[in-house]
Amino acid sequence: MDKIKTCFGRSIYKLRKELGLTQKALGEKLETTKQNINNWEKCISTPSADTLVKISEFFHVPIDFLLGQGIFENWEQIEENKEAVIQYIAPLLKERAGFTPEQINMLYTNDQFFKGILNALVWKIEFFSPSTGDPNDITVNITLKI
Q1: Is the model's pLDDT at 72 over the cut of 80?
Q2: What is the mean pLDDT of residues 65-84?
Q3: Fewest Cβ atoms nearer than 10 Å: which of 15, 42, 46, 104?
């Protein structure tokens, strides 16, 4: 449970800041109090399942992203290597899911679309650094659900 609370607090804080919202403003939008937002961000408490759904819908992100679960456990590494991830999955999405070039481009430009596609279609993402000493030399291994 501690891991979930830590990841959730960090996630909601980051999303709130990205939108430029105060804790009070987010509380109003989610029909809760500033104190609840503060407690979630500090990992003092966690929201109910119903509230978690509201938060997910408000920020347009999967619940797994909020909780730092599933493929989102290593989200920071995914963001750092986003281009490599997209280059890896783009041909598979075209072949297996019939993605158009416009949809592939949206993976680069729309973070919510990118997160949603990863949540829906990707089972696991692993990163490997060969022993070349080059920090930019990353190998990506992705397992799709489709």
Answers
A1: no
A2: 82
A3: 42
How far is the C-alpha of 86 from the C-alpha of 105, rounded, in Å? 9
CA distance 140 to 68: 20
Dihedral angle over CA of 118, 121, 126, 132, nearest 10: -80
State the DSSP string of 42-95. Answer: TTS----HHHHHHHHHHHT--HHHHHT-GGGGGHHHHHHTHHHHHHHHHHHHHH
* Residues 146, 142: Cα–Cα separation, whole Å: 12
Please give the radius of gyration of the chain, using alpha carbons only, rounded to the nearest integer: 17
Q: Please compute the mean of the pLDDT values over residues 112-139 and round it to a whole number.
A: 73
Q: Give the position of tokens 């990863």.
A: 118
Q: Which of 101, 127, 112, 130 is nearest to 62 (CA)?
A: 112
Mean pLDDT of 120-126: 75
**HSE of 28, CA atoms in CB hemisphere, 13 A:** 4
- Say how far apart CA 3 and CA 137 lie, in whole Å: 30
